[in-house]
Amino acid sequence: MLIRTPATSQAKESDVTPEHLFRARRRFLQLGAGSALGWAAASSLAVGGLLAPVSAKAREVEMLKAAKWPGSTDEPPTTLKDITTYNNFYELSTSKDGPQHETENFKPAPWSVEVSGLVNNPGTYDVWDLVKKDQLEQRIYRHRCVEAWSMVVPWVGVSLADVVKRLDPQTSAKYIAFETLLDPEQLPGQNRQVLQWPYVEGLRLDEALNPLAMLVVGVYDQTLPPQNGAPIRLVVPWKYGFKAIKSIVRISFTEEEPPTSWNRSAPREYGFYANVNPGVNHPRWSQAKERRIGDFLRRKTEMFNGYGDEVAGLYTGMDLTRSF
Ligand SMILES: Nc1nc2c(c(=O)[nH]1)N[C@H]1C(S)=C(S)[C@@H](COP(=O)(O)O)O[C@H]1N2
Ligand SMILES: [Mo]
């Protein structure tokens, strides 16, 4: 299901280092030649626009975007191959290498998202009305799974905050809730009750308004493959990966804390907050260290996954050993 880019050279993915590959692509972005508009075309995964000539204005827009990637890390990104073949997506498969092989019935387009609850602009939105293509940014974030592995991923998307502001929650709204598609034909793992379906997640509204939280539609320079949550998923880089709900079809604004799949399944093990915290171990394993996919040695896990400067203020006065 992955469509390879008409690469910067004839080199195959495996012939170049991820860093090399990534830098080449990043240059395209900065030059405007890899305009997000081109490579995130709604229905096609093709990147035909990649080499199209661009105006000086478009180039300027791209430069500005490149300059304001909030929170992006300089760490070398994980390879596209690892990002798209080592996954957690229980609606497809419960093994890490399974999701990539269970995508043949999945239809990422057309796709709409229903917005409801305590919000002034409810309705059914086409994904590309919710996420404006001319606002897409690439941000390189650390991605830390609760199972103590991590990656560095060049995501493409928009600030969740911008979308939330356009939807205009009412003052009584305190939380935002998300739901994944429920359709066992497209998501065969839903024939097995490993979790209660659909997968659900939520954030406190002030967390959702933090500029680091993203609605993601792409990775590297392509639209999301199904196994990564096509066509739209959440990314909250200071939290464990399970908050990053995939293939979202419903967003609602609520006054009460919404249920979340992993908390519902094992409340002693998974809390609502799920902030990355090396000081609070999972009941069955340590969270002090993590294995970066591609590395041999484990590294120390950082509080809030290293994003403390940006997000610690959200939790002032809270006991994070209790609100884990
Ligand atoms: N709908 C849905 N979203 C999901 C999951 C899932 O099983 N179903 N797994 C979560 C977990 S546990 C992780 S670690 C991340 C993995 O994202 P990735 O496969 O893109 O790395 O997706 C999260 N989002
Ligand atoms: Mo995870």
Strand content: 15-25%
Write the CATH architecture name of the largest domain: Alpha-Beta Complex
Computed Rg: 19 Å
* CATH class type of the largest domain: Alpha Beta
Task: State the helical fraction.
Answer: 10-25%
The named CATH superfamily of the largest domain: Oxidoreductase, molybdopterin-binding domain
Bound molecules: the ligand Nc1nc2c(c(=O)[nH]1)N[C@H]1C(S)=C(S)[C@@H](COP(=O)(O)O)O[C@H]1N2, molybdenum atom
What's the order of the H and E elements?
Answer: HHHHEEHEEHEEHEEEEHEEH
Continuous helix count: 9
Q: What form results from the Cα inertia axes? A: globular
CATH topology grouping of the largest domain:
Sulfite Oxidase, Chain A, domain 2
Number of domains: 2
Query: Termini, distance in Å?
Result: 37 Å
Instruction: Work out the number of β strands.
Output: 12
Mean pLDDT, all residues:
85
Regions with little confidence, pLDDT below 50 for 5+ residues: 1-53
Structural class determined from secondary elements: alpha+beta
Largest sheet geometry: 7 strands, mixed
